[in-house]
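Exercise 7.
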Amino acid sequence: MSNVAFLVDPDFAQTHVGVRNYIFALKALIEKHGHATHLIMIDQDQQWYSIHYANHGFEENNGGTDIRIAAAPRDMLRQFYARAATSRRSDVHKVALGSRFPAGLFDMCIITAPWAVRFDERLPGTLLLGLVHDVIPNIHALVKPTHPFGFADEHRRGYEYYLRHCDAIITNSADTAKSFEQFFGGGRRVQPLPPLVPKAFLSAPVPQDQRGNTVLLAGPLDPRKGLQQLPALLNSLDAACDSVTMFGAIRCRETDAHDFFRALRTEHLIWYPTISAAELVRLYARSRLLLFPSLEEGLGIPIIEAQWMGARVAVRAKSPMRDLALEGHVLLDERPDPAGAEKEAQHYAPLLLNALQDKAFDHAKLAETARRRFNPEVALSVLSRLGVDLLSLD
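Solution. The predicted structure, written as C-alpha cells, is:
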C-alpha cells in the first residue's frame, strides 16, 4: 500500500470549489485501489498539519447542502435572502506534524495548487508532483482592464517552484498543459491528466430514460457563464420546456441578478444556491439538456457531469467546451452574437428545441459513451508511470 499526500492551502474547505472537486475525485480513485491518502497543509507560521473533516459527508458533497427554492423568477431573490442561504461547512481538525515536512512518511506528495506553496526548499523523501489547474490569472494580468496581479503572482511563484523542485508537473487537461508550457515551459515534465467527474458521480448508475423536458443551468449567475445571453436562449424554449432548474451561487452584481430573473418568461423555476452531490446527480439524470453558454472554462466539469448522466449539452464552439461535447450536443457560436442575445436565441432556437423534444435520443447510450471517454482510471495510469504504482497494491 502506498501513502499519497495532497498538500492543500489552509482555506481549502472554504474556497476553490472546482479545485476541491478535482482533488476529492482523484483522492477517491486512489483510495478505491486500496492506497492511503492524506490531506496536509502548512500555515503562515511554517507549521505542518494533517487535516480531517468533522463532517464525514463533506468530501462526498464537496461542502454543499441542498437549499432548494421553487418560485416564479420575480420572487427568487426575495426568497433567497429570506432563506439566508449559506453552505454548511465542515469543522476542520488539525493534527500537528511539526515544523518540518515529514520526510519518508509519504510515497507521493501532490501540491494541489500553486498558492499552497509557502516554502522555498524541495520537500524531501517523496515523489513530488505539482498540479496545475489553469494559467487564467496570468493571462488576465496581461489582457484584462483590471489586472489581477496579486493572484497571478501567486500562481507564478508556485509554478516556478514546480519547475525548480517537482519531479513532474501534472495538469487537469491537455489544454492546460499547452497553456502552461507557453507561459512557463517544462517540456516533457508536464503531464496532462484527464478531466475527472466529482466523487459522487463515480458510483452513479447509468440512468434509465425517465426525463421530462427539463433544462438545467450550471452557475448561470456569473458573467463568465453566459449570464447576459441565457434569458433570451431560455425564453426561446419556454413553450416546450416543462421546467428550468439552476444551481450555483451568485457570482455577479446584485443588479445583474435582478435583471436575469426579471428577463425570464418561465413560471417554473427551481434554484439551488447550494447543492449536495447526490442531488446534483439526480438533477442531471432527470434533465434532457444542459444549457451552458460559458465563455471561459478551465475544466468544463458541468459538461462532463451532464453527459456522464446522459443529459445533452449546448455549449460554445470554443475549447475546451467543444472538445468535451459528445453525441447529441448543440454548438453555439464561439462568442456571443454581436447583434445581441435575442438574435442569437432566434438563430439557435430550432436546434435547442430539437435537443429538448427529441424523445428518440438515446440518453443511456450517451452516458455510457461519456464513461468510456472520461474514464478516470487513465489519471491513475499517468500517475503510476511517474514512479508510484497506484493501480495495484504493493
